[in-house]
Amino acid sequence: MGEGTESSVKRDNQDIKDENTHAPEDGGVQYYTRAEVQAHNMIEDTWLIIHDKVYDITRFMEEHPGGEEVLLEQAGADATESFEDVGHSTDAREMLQQYYIGELHMDDRKKESKKEVYITTSKDSKSWTTWLIPTIAAVLVGAMYRYYMLEHRSS
Ligand code: HEM
Fold first, then answer.
1. Could you tell me if the CB of 72 is within 6 A of ligand 1?
2. Is the shortest distance between the CB of 77 and ligand 1 below 6 Å?
3. Among the atoms of ligand 1, which is closest to the Cα of residue 87?
4. Alpha carbon nearest to ligand 1 atom 12, residue
5. pLDDT tens series, the chain, 155 aa
6. Which of 1, 27, 116, 119 has a CA-to-CA distance to 60 between 20 and 30 Å?
């Protein structure tokens, strides 16, 4: 039992080391997972995701012209939609650069493209209904025509 605990501790340590290897000391880009960003969801430690980029906006909270409450609501999460909904100015977009700390991890971005695939699939099922309705209509018209012809022959 003791051994099991030990190995899980080792695995945890390895995970931490793996994350640290992305450190941008060499000028590379730092990647963060959604889970990592989510941990920074409080007023004195606030991160946001906007357009797959990660921002540490802790020091901006009090300065935000739209108030800190709206930012706190989005803290640790993807704020792309709400940021765009407000229709922020070019100035606001330029301000973002000051708080940039890295990119959202590629694995976490794929969820978006999976959604697109899903939409394409649902479009396919739409075309399935587009041919089914005319087919039923054609069969009905055919049946009515036959019935009409039989009626006329017998009379
Ligand atoms: C770090 C990210 C953000 C920056 C740098 C930023 C910056 C700004 C700036 C400069 C303004 C003044 C108006 C303008 O220039 O567009 C503003 C207004 C505002 N922002 Fe943000 N903002 C950010 C994120 C957000 C988010 C995530 C929300 C929504 C949840 C939000 C909601 C608002 C609102 C409601 C206003 C007030 C609009 C008004 O009174 O007309 N902002 N923001």
1. no
2. no
3. 16
4. 65
5. 444 444 444 444 444 444 444 445 556 899 999 999 999 999 999 999 999 999 999 999 999 999 999 999 999 999 999 999 999 999 999 999 999 999 999 999 865 544 554 545 555 555 667 778 888 999 999 999 898 888 887 65
6. 27
Ligand 1 atom closest to residue 79's alpha carbon, by position in its atom list: 27
Locus of tokens 């994350």: 19
Q: Is the CB of 140 under 6 A from ligand 1?
A: no
DSSP the chain: -HHHHHHHHHHHHHHHHHHHTT-GGGS---EE-HHHHHT-EETTEEEEEETTEEEE-GGGTTT-TT-HHHHHHHTTSB-HHHHHHHT--HHHHHHHHHHEEEEE-HHHHHHHHHHHHHHHHHHHHHHHHHHHHHHHHHHHHHHHHHHHHHHHHH-
71 lines ligand 1 (CB under 6 A): yes
Q: Is 65 in the pocket of ligand 1 (CB under 6 A)?
A: yes
